[in-house]
Amino acid sequence: MAENGTAYSPEEKLELIKRNLQEVLGEDRITPIIKERDLKIYWGTATTGRPHVAYFVAMSKVADFLHAGCEVTILFADLHAYLDNMKAPWSLLQLREKYYEAIIKAMLKSINVPLEKLKFVKGTDFQLSKEYTLDVYRLSSLVTEHDARKAGAEVVKQVQHPLLSGLLYPGLQALDEEYLKVDAQFGGVDQRKIFTYAEKYLPHLGYTKRIHFMNPMVPGLTGSKMSSSEEDSKIDLLDTAAQVKKKLKMAFCEPGNITENGLLSFCKHVLYPITCKEGFTVVRKEEFGGNVTYKKFQELEDAFAKEVMNSNKIKKPGQAGGQTEEAIVPSRLDLRVGKITKVEKHPDADSLYVETVDLGNGDERTVVSGLAGLVPMEDLQDRLGVFLCNLKPQKMRGIESKAMLMCASVAEPRAVEPLNPPEGSAPGERVFFEEHESGKPDEELKPKKKVWEQLQPDLRTNSDCVAEWQGNIMKTKLGNVTCKSLKSSPIK
Q: Which residues form the TRNA-binding domain (predicted)?
């Protein structure tokens, strides 16, 4: 049924089924089936890591299939996940399957996809049966090591001395087509070798050759394939707004490059088919020409290819020399190494410490920090830290705080760790960010301009506990600023 409730003709169903696919094997077999009954399709995903935003590419096609009246099976390939170089231990598989099902249902519901003809199946529900196991042995008597390794080259982790499990992987995926009783399998174009393997060998077992639908591979944010194992290449479905903003700002988006552009590909395969019914609007300030809407993806791609999406910046009326507002960059923060020479409880607040801090060159300040109950006082005494020194002084329960101790912080479970300057640092040394070494800090960060409030959401530790702003490392002349153990955590 169409989204407005009217029935599609076989020709309209075929067009919807094929939309945005890169390749179809066995296209001539589709129309005879959909003239008689609903097409049966399966899409499999190995439960090896957390689903990320690129899953919406596959889900947008699943949406097309369901709108075209197809019966869709989503296979949680738990056995495949274990066989793929044992990325997923058995103890995690059951929990991962529940998480995958919840995430995928939520994704489909968020884009208004009917779920009546959708079902979920676990691989181990049928792959451990006597019949399936015998077919694995039958297939192994026909397939050479060369063919098995070649078939899995794009999807199975490749090592110099592969495990036998990885060689079994393509055969299991081929047999799934028969045991799920489907007409077609859907996957990325990276699975083409497995699909042609299935077309070659299933008939040798007396089974029907299936149709194969292939999505193009959407580049990740770094320009290569979006991968669960490469953190910066993907947007995780559980990422915070600040994390998404940071990753988008770091994304590879070379002007004019339309072939290795994950942002453009996501627009084509997800946003336009699902949400951009009225077009895609690029929001721009007036000095850049104002907002512009592209009704069709081809218009958006052409504008990006010709590098005309952003107009040259023009000065506002009455703005001398075309000067613009000051950029919100981290070089405006006065960050310095400081030494805590004294620490005591706040007399009127159980959650606060009052610290005396040596910031070098005779600059000694009082700093109030909300660390009581989170960091022992003895851990702060005589330690070096990173201090933000140009915030407007603020009274905290009657005591004026004239700087802020920078800490990595997580809410669940609650944990806070002060940042650590490199070994050998001394009070007063400047703390800066890569790519932003030059520039003079503001004398004082004016509250109305909210400079700190705009910079702080992009301050985080990375997976190595190194402090960063939008991927640019925080450091001193002696090396990187770190924290003890909090990875990928906000810095406040």
A: 329-432
Numbers of helices and strands, H then E, in the chain: 15, 22
Residue 379 tokens read as: 């851990």
Question: For 216-252, how does the pLDDT look when each residue is reduced to its tens digit (9 = 90+)?
Answer: 887 776 655 555 555 556 677 777 777 777 777 777 7
3-state secondary structure of 369: strand
Q: Which of 229, 300, 303 is nearest to 266 (CA)?
A: 300
From the number of C-beta atoms within 10 Å of its C-beta (0-12, 13-18, 19+), residue 372 rates as middle
- Return the number of other C-beta atoms located less than 10 Å from residue 313's C-beta: 11
Query: How many of the other CB atoms lie within 10 Å of CB of 282?
Result: 16
| DSSP states along 224-238 | SB--TT-GGG--BTT
φ/ψ (deg, to 5) at 328: -90, 90
pTM confidence score: 0.57
How many CA atoms, within 13 angstroms, populate the side-chain half-sphere of residue 261?
17
CA nearest to 14, candidates 69, 53, 52: 69
Tens digit of each residue's pLDDT (9 = 90 or more) over 86-130:
556 677 777 888 888 888 888 888 878 888 899 999 999 999 999
Q: Given the structure tokens 């580049």, which residue do they identify?
A: 219
Task: Tell me the three state secondary structure of residue 34.
Answer: helix
The 3-class secondary structure across 148-187, one letter per residue, is HHHHCCCCCCCCCCCCHHHHHHHHHHHHHHHHCCCCEEEE
User: Across residues 151-174, what is the average pLDDT?
Assistant: 77
Query: In angstroms, rounded to a whole number, what is the distance separating the alpha carbons of residues 104 and 12?
Result: 26
β-pair partners for 356: 342, 366
End-to-end CA distance of the chain: 51
Question: Contact, 475 vs 429, CB < 8 A?
Answer: no
Q: Check whether the bond before 10 is cis (ω within 30° of 0).
A: no
